[in-house]
Amino acid sequence: MGGRAKARCDLLGVPPYSEVDGQLTRRFLSPAHDAALDTLSLWITEAGMTVRRDAAGNLIGRYEGASPDAPALLIGSHIDSVRNGGRYDGPLGILLGVDLIEALHDAGRRLPFALEVIAFGDEEGSRFAASMSCSRAVAGTLDPAAVLGMIDAEGVTLAQAFTAFGLDPARITEAARKPSDVIAFLEAHIEQGPVLEAEGLALGVVTAIAAQKRLMVRISGMAGHAGTTPMPLRKDPGPAAAECILALERICRAGTDNLVGTVGRMTALPGAFNVIPGAVEFSMDIRAETSATRDAAVEAITTEIHTIAARRGLTATVTLMQALDESPCDPDLTALLESAVGDLGLPVRRLPSGAGHDAMVMADLCPTAMLFIRCEGGISHNPAESVTEADCALAAQAMLAFVERLADRDPRPSTGSG
Ligand code: GLV
Ligand code: MN
Ligand code: MN
After folding, report:
1. What value does the mean pLDDT of the chain take?
2. Which one of the ligands is nearest to 90 CA?
3. Which of 124, 133, 209 to mutate to test ligand 1, by most ligand atoms within 8 A of the CB atom?
4. Rounded distance between C-alpha atoms, residue 262 and residue 212, angstroms
């Protein structure tokens, strides 16, 4: 259990499960996403589950409990990747769930609740500006009107992408689950940071997930000839954007509560060697342990952007694309997960998550718990992402211990050996 989950992530790291040869890029609703769901469906079926795709492009495997139609513990993560990403960010949490359920199936065990493994389609937001649209659909918090018109780099709307994937964009809210059908959501994920490795620990238990905001900034000036327009007469948004990014860095460096800010995308328009850009657009990703700290930073950065633009005779717009508040994991489930890690004889290390996860959205539907797995050098969102088979095996055992402890405290009966 566990080692195979890692091997399967590796298998899904190449075409047709990647859109690009020689790297892993699996964006939401792409042919690579479709191919990954087809193969995942086979593995889920082999593990003794029924399988279905929901109205929002999620894949769901279900292993019934001792009595039919019992509410389910959902276990999973996301199947999409960032551009040129690693193989374990997301899929590992799904495939550890498949391994765990297959072990119960092989032992002929039925729990008081059903188990479902879920592969969310869009956690990263690497195709469209907003992220986590699939877990938001399941949690019942997705507003289709706010997202269906978003366009990708090729000008395809999210609504068109859904249609091309064989889904009806008018029906995505049908993916919402009733709170009474869901007991909890358990997500295992690589840590994506260096803490566990530095402390020589395989596993960690997540206490809370940081708040984040995504914003787009556009600074507009005047396009012109790069050879003939004297420097003092230009209205060039390029240097203004550079100043704004330095202001973002300065404000975040001075911050508390693990405040971090990133400009991960930047475009000069129209984009030519010999044209002074008429506009520059860049993204901002701002995170902190609390929404209050995040919001104060966003406000300070926005003020700086307007001041810099005005001083240079330019105009600036700052548009909020998405806000996700901090999400504490459920204290009871977290304590149960800590006991499960302890059952393996491992030290219990609690830590917060700076990365976003589907669990933060699923918290609107049900209690959540998250298990972190050590990754090499803390490297993630990078093809160098790496985990060991041994750590994956420990994660699978801890997840099984968690599920067993949850079953033990459930008043409904279990069946089968164990
Ligand atoms: C997802 O990996 C995120 O933290 O943005
Ligand atoms: Mn990621
Ligand atoms: Mn992830």
Report:
1. 97
2. 3
3. 124
4. 11
What's the average model confidence in pLDDT over 272-294?
A: 98
Give yes or no: residues 90 and 190 share one domain.
yes
Domain contains 199:
yes
In a domain, 223, yes or no: yes
255 C-beta closer than 6 A to ligand 1 = no
Do 23 and 67 have their domain in common?
yes
C-alpha–C-alpha distance, residues 267 and 276, integer Å: 13
- 261-265: Cβ within 8 A, 24+ apart: 261/285, 261/286, 261/287, 261/297, 261/301, 262/286
Domain end residue (candidates: 324, 352, 369): 324
Domain that holds residue 55: 3-210+326-409
> How far does the centroid of ligand 1 lie from the alpha carbon of residue 278, in Å?
31
Does residue 270 have a cis peptide bond before it, meaning omega lies within 30 degrees of 0?
yes
Query: Is 214 known to sit in a ligand binding site?
Result: yes
Separation CA 409–CA 195 (nearest Å): 32
- SS3 of 198-252: HCCCCEEEEEEECEEEEEEEEEECCCEECCCCCHHHCCCHHHHHHHHHHHHHHHH
How much distance in Å is there from the Cα of 100 to the middle of ligand 1?
25
Count structural domains, the chain: 2
pLDDT digits (tens, 9 = 90+) for 60-75: 999 999 999 999 999 9
The yes-or-no verdict on residue 418 having pLDDT over 80 is no
CA-CA distances (angstroms) from residue 312 to 21, 60, 209, 233, 237? Answer: 44, 53, 38, 11, 8
Q: What pLDDT sits at residue 1?
A: 86
Residue 405 DSSP symbol: H
Q: Nearest C-alpha to atom 3 of ligand 1 is from which residue?
A: 356
CB distance 124 to ligand 1 below 6 Å:
yes
**217 in the same domain as 200:** no
Q: Binding site annotation covers 274?
A: yes
